[in-house]
Amino acid sequence: MAEGWEGWDEYARFYDWENAQTLGRRDVPFWRRIAATADGPVLELGCGTGRVSVPLAKAGVDLVGVDRSAPMLERALQRVARARRNRRNPFNQQSSISNLQFVRADIRTLPFAAHTFAMVLAPYGILQSLIRPRDLTAALASVARVIAPGGTFGVDLVPDVPNWREYRNRVQLRGESNGTRLTLVESVSQDRRRHLTMFEQRYIERRGGRVREHRFDLTFRTLSVPAMSRQLERAGFTVDAVLGDYRGRPWDDRADVWIILAKRG
Fold first, then answer.
1. How far apart are CA 40 and CA 17, in angstroms?
2. How buried is 165 (Cβ within 10 angstroms: 0-12 exposed, 13-18 middle, 19+ buried)?
3. What is the largest CA-CA distance in the chain?
4. If you average pLDDT over residues 71-83, what whole number do you get?
5. Among 237, 238, 259, 239, which Cα is nearest to 250's?
6. What are 188-235's pLDDT values in tens digits?
7. What is the 3-state secondary structure (H, E, C) of the chain?
8. Tens digit of each residue's pLDDT (9 = 90 or more) over 122-141
9. Does residue 2 register a pLDDT over 90?
């Protein structure tokens, strides 16, 4: 079985383009509000290209973002560099971005001292890339070690993954990026015994008369809210709230958003 982190290096060059077209979840303002309440530094798991990290840091949050993928982190640094070049961006008012740091790390073995962070965030289904139960157990234990007593752990799960239909070679997106025409052709399959959903991604680039194709796979594990809550409790957390949208409404199993906020005991 493939590792859950496989495919993300190849995905890095397309991640921001795809999310700009599909991410109607409006999660950044929510995480900005949550992180603003932290009494100390915040850790973001699976920070990727800095989609969440940079806006939070711009809002004054003292933040460390970790990701295993070097290409993703390279793009996060490019995002910061663009922000600093833009005179209208609040980052440009500082001589350096001292409140934002990116670290390449495995979230199962976080390389920080005990009780370093007042808050840990796991946005947009990052924990579902841990495709073996033991990987999730290790990650939660690692978070429990680095978060301070009483600290908040925010977890966002992608809902209803097992009900997504299987299909082959469906054109999901078309558009343009920096003068290149992009087409995403996607196939989805399920391993219901292991609670896994596999996405085969084919990005086709057309520029002038040249055509290039990029192929990679992404795998996600189904995690229900009750199951995730039990895992958090076993790791030493107390579930504080379960939300069904980014405005803070209560969760039910039909909600489009599944968010768990837990406290470290």
1. 32
2. exposed
3. 60
4. 92
5. 259
6. 999 988 989 999 999 999 998 899 999 999 999 988 999 999 999 999
7. CCCCCCCHHHHHHHHHHHHHHHCCCCHHHHHHHHHCCCCCCEEEECCCCCCCHHHHHHCCCCEEEEECCHHHHHHHHHHHHHHHHCCCCHHHHCCCCCCEEEEECCCCCCCCCCCCEEEEEECCCHHHHCCCHHHHHHHHHHHHHHEEEEEEEEEEECCCHHHCCCEEEEEEEEEEECCEEEEEEEEEEEECCCCEEEEEEEEEEEECCEEEEEEEEEEEECCCHHHHHHHHHHCCEEEEEEECCCCCCECCCCCCCEEEEEEEC
8. 999 999 999 999 999 999 99
9. no
Examine the pLDDT at 91 and tell me if it is beyond 50. no
Which residue type, as a one-letter code, is found at position 88?
Answer: R
